[in-house]
Amino acid sequence: xxxxxxxxxxxxxxxxxxxxxxxxxxxxxxxxxxxxxxxxxxxxxxxxxxxxxxxxxxxxxxxxxxxxxxxxxxxxxxxxxxxxxxxxxxxxxxxxxxxxxxxxxxxxxxxxxxxxxxxxxxxxxxxxxxxxxxxxxxxxxxxxxxxxxxxxxxxxxxxxxxxxxxxxxxxxxxxxxxxxxxxxxxxxxxxxxxxxxxxxxxxxxxxxxxxxxxxxxxxxxxxxxxxxxxxxxxx
Length: 235
Known about the structure:
This protein is of the alpha+beta class.
């Protein structure tokens, strides 16, 4: 008898195109460490609040900054050496008594220095990128969880914190494949009230878990309360 009642309710629900979904932020992010290092700052006070161009996590970059300063100095020295050796090569080419071997040897010095310059430029850019990746900031997202504290040592791939974009909400439901194409022609009711919400996306590949259904995504503006269960009807 219970099975019959359940099947009856399920059939009626499908016929009425009635679904339930939890209202979630439009995007959720898990931010992981890109480089290794010791945590020198963990903004635990912002956990549970929206960021405002806030630094969330910072890893120690003291050695990287020293290396960057020295590498920039070395690049200047290399540029000076290239200038000197280029002038030497230009003068050497004009001396008829100098052999082709001597001239080629001087030219090779210039080429080697230019190669060293290219390597140093790449090193400098890598160091700048490493330093940037050690200071993680958020513009406006909600910081839902910080998983590391000051003094921790992390390696690439370690979860640092989680953030969410609360600018919009999303509702995701799974509908029978045969019904999906008809939904765009219908009005959407949220908790029994007609809304202006439109379907944002219908995934036209069957879901891996709901093998006979397509996932349908709705975007909802101006959300005050997330994570609540919402009734969705298509009429």
